[in-house]
Amino acid sequence: MKTPSTRERLSQLIVALRQQILTLPDGAARQPRFDRQLFLSKGTRLHDYLDEIEQNFQQLSQNQANPGRAAWLAQRLVDQIAALQREASTQTLRLRRERPMPDFRQQKRDEYRDYERRLQAMIDQREQRLALAGTLAMQQQLKRELEALEGRLARCRQALHAVEWQRSLRS
């Protein structure tokens, strides 16, 4: 690097990149985001890579005695900045894709809890209608519906208990 304008431009790119990364949620990825030839950092957060870029920029600023090393380091910095800019620009897409999958047993448990709640509401409704039913035929019909709903509720609670029992064994 022979001109200070190149260093200033790199500095501006790093500042802009830092601002861009600060606006993003920076969760850890499941695995390193970049190849080991591009970044030496073992971290998986965007800030880890930004820190490495800033360290390389400091080395570049201090290492003016060896022009070959400075040129290599400047090219590496440009490659690192470009890669991190691409990664940061796709971060919102990656966050949606990398969300952990919900636990199957938890999904089933929530589903059964919802069924239980809805069945109980239906039973309560039928009991209210039974209390207000005037004819014997209507009362018998509502009693049959209540028996069927209570049977469904019992089976739902058994399934819920089985899921919770399996879940407790896994924990």
From TrEMBL:
Phylogenetic placement of the source organism: Bacteria, Pseudomonadati, Pseudomonadota, Gammaproteobacteria, Enterobacterales
Keyword Coiled coil appears in the UniProt entry: yes
InterPro entries for the chain: PriC (IPR010890), PriC_sf (IPR038338)
Origin superkingdom: Bacteria
Encoding gene (name): priC
Protein name, as recorded: Primosomal replication protein PriC
Key words of the record: Coiled coil
Coiled-coil regions listed: 105-166
Organism: Pantoea osteomyelitidis
